[in-house]
Amino acid sequence: MKKLFRYLGRYPVWLAVCLALLFGQAMADLSLPSLMSDIVNVGIQQGGIEEAAPDALGSKAMTLMRTFMTEQDRQMTENQYTLIKSGSSEAGDYEGKYPAVKTEDIYVKKPGGDSGRLGAVFGRSAMTLLNYIKENAAKSGQSAANASPTEGLNEMDLSPLYEMQPMLDNIPPAAFEDSRAAADRLDESILRQVGVVMAKQFYNELGVDTGAIRIGYIIRKGIMMLLLTLAGAAATVMVSLISSRISADVAKRMRRDVFAHVEGFSNAEFDKFSTASLITRTTNDITQIQMLLVIGIRMVCYAPIMGIGGVIMAVSKSPSMSWIIAVGVAILIALIVVVFVVAMPKFKLVQKMVDRLNLVTREHLSGMMVIRAFGTQKHEEARFDRANRDLTGVNLFVNRVMVIMMPVMMLLLNGISLVIVWVGAHQIEAAAIQVGDMVAFTQYAIQIIISFLMVAVMFIMVPRAAVSAKRVEEVLNTEPTIRDPEMPQALGERPSGRVEFRNVSFRYSGAEDDVLHDISFVAEPGKTTAFIGSTGSGKSTLINLIPRFYDVTAGEILIDGVDIRRITQHELHEAIGFVPQKGILFSGDIASNLRYGRREATDEEIRLAADIAQATEFISSSEEGLDRPISQGGANVSGGQKQRLAIARALVKNAPIYIFDDCFSALDFKTDAALRRALKEHTGDSTVLIVAQRVGTIMNAEQIIVLDEGRIVGRGTHQELLKTCETYREIASSQLTKEELA
Questions:
Q1: Which end of the chain, N or C, is surrounded by fewer C-beta atoms within 10 Å?
Q2: In the 3-class helix/strand/coil scheme, how is 456-486 assigned residue by residue?
Q3: Is the pLDDT of residue 146 over 50?
């Protein structure tokens, strides 16, 4: 997994940009509930007045408030306010803002003061006044004593208190101590709210339009919320764009590296990984990793910031209700653990079952003709249905486990909201919190739960992507058994093509016995060396050692005296024109297939090769000619035509060595004979190695090597082997008449 995530190493700047954008988005999202709380608490409940210390108040109001202050608070108030006499020159500057200055003296707050401390002073003074009134009401038997701390404050008429000021001045300060102590026991937010309500009344006395203040405050906060929402949306779009581009590029590079790595595999590695599995790993598995990156880049950064930030903001709004979030998170974590434990084992099965389904599908499509010929459609349908049902069953199980999360999450979210409203209502009644704080706390709780849900989604995606990453990493970590030497030798500009086997033995990986035993021979340039033997005698295995599809277990193979293991694979393959036992064509047209070995080949060279391979007749039979389209695998041409095109493709290379691995089997005798005659003329100085089942194909070869159970049991010309090799004589007698043998 670590090796695969190194692919992200080239994107540090973009990842840092994503992190910055996600942090900004999280801060914007976390600010919205707080702004909503301000609109409810300040804009609606406080009429848009933000500070408990009024910017201005009448002289009567100042005298009343000082009555319920401590001596220290009075001194602070005197230092923070300036007296503006009615009718003075200074009063004219404030008439527009405070119309009452025309008829009474007012106090105006000095700029640059400590508004926080001053607001606390006015809030405590206002609450002390309110408590004193309630205490006196209780003594006289009125019901106001049982009311909420702030109840009736908005409707309080201060005029009678102004008239009672002479009496209040004669009351000893100690008489207010109990009322002040009761005020100190309340939450600062309640004291601030009481002070703000009193400040609103003071503004009304001065003729200030408090309605305009309220509307202006709500509009300002609303605009801030709108801007933050737009900023968050822009950040979301940018992060989605960047993460999509990063993940797509990582997937592209990963697929490229896997494909390039697989191209370097020898047959031994292909024996380890099935073709269907390699296709799944290159496509489906890398897609799983890409999906993880798309979502992960966003969630891995965003969810923790939202979760931690939401907890901090929620606790700051109401520490007394934080236990609700703790219980909700604990339930959610328990749910995630249960889902993870139940679903994790199944994730490991999904990709293996996708491999199996791809394998069955590929075999079905590739072997369609055989399936129809043997009438086994029902059997193949049952095989596919079984693989399909197994995959569907596992996916259904996983999806059923996953689908449980959504209703449980909704129940949890709604349950937490209900508990918050229930507990918050009681705390509002007890003046422990404000309505806006409860609303904000609810929003933060939802954000926290959603953040943990994002983490849960990651926990669900990571195991499946980890399985896919491990499967891709297995391919990338598989070192090819056949590699180029560190200090290669060169064959020269035009090698002669002399091939020599010296005591070569070969054993397949994991096998107990050798397939080839102590093989030695020399294939000279300008001559044809043929290999014949019974099925399983090792003919194709021997031929596959020359281009290093496998490496020898013992001994050595030399070309022009150089061990092929000391030559780069590219140079080795450039010196060989290879025609495999099964002709493989690629989608495109005839010309592109014939130029596959030498892109710069001219049309004349292509036509010559096609003519030698006896392919000109059927190429010319269609109007497109060399432009005739070839479907995938050459499905739209016959077996003989496919083999002839494969032979022509090898001839276009004009290589010093030609290898024909039993590629004449689909040709009729006439075409076979004509092709061999033309081939002899064309290959002139090249070394030709032919594997064949038919004696008629190789009887004119200069050297025929007879193999039996991986050993050379005969060597010589056709006539020599008829006299000296019993195995060859048996093969020839089974195919040719006595007259032909003679």
A1: C
A2: HHHHHHHHHHHHHHHHHHHHHHCCCCCCCCC
A3: no
In this structure, the answer to whether residues 442 and 302 fall within a common structural domain is: yes
Question: Exposed/middle/buried for 137, CB within 10 Å: 0-12, 13-18, 19+?
Answer: middle
Q: Please give the biggest Cα pair distance in the chain.
A: 149
Residue 407 forms part of a structural domain: yes
Helices (H), 8-58: 12-38
pLDDT over 70 percentage in the chain: 95
| 575 or 266: which leads in pLDDT | 575
**The domain spanning residue 635 has which CATH number?**
3.40.50.300
Q: Which amino acid is at 214?
A: R
pLDDT tier, 230 (very low <50, low <70, confident <90, very high otherwise): very high
**Inside any domain, residue 718:** yes
SS3 category, 186: coil
Do residue 511 and residue 644 come from a single domain?
Answer: no
Q: Are residues 552 and 594 in the same domain?
A: no
pLDDT exceeds 70 at position 721:
yes
In terms of domains, do 514 and 647 share one? no
Residue 499 falls inside a structural domain: yes
Q: What phi, psi does 83 have (nearest 5°)?
A: -80, 125
The enclosing H or E element of 728 equals helix 726-735
Domain span at residue 311 reads: 264-477
**How confident is the model over 9-54, as pLDDT tens digits?**
788 888 889 889 988 888 898 889 888 888 888 888 778 888 888 8
Whole-angstrom distance, CA of residue 336 vs CA of residue 457 = 9
Dihedral sign (CA 565, 568, 570, 572): negative
Q: How many domains does the chain have?
A: 4
| CA dist., res. 416 & res. 424, Å (int) | 12
Q: How many CA atoms lie within 13 A of 105 on its CB side?
A: 11
Residue 290 has pLDDT above 80, yes or no: yes
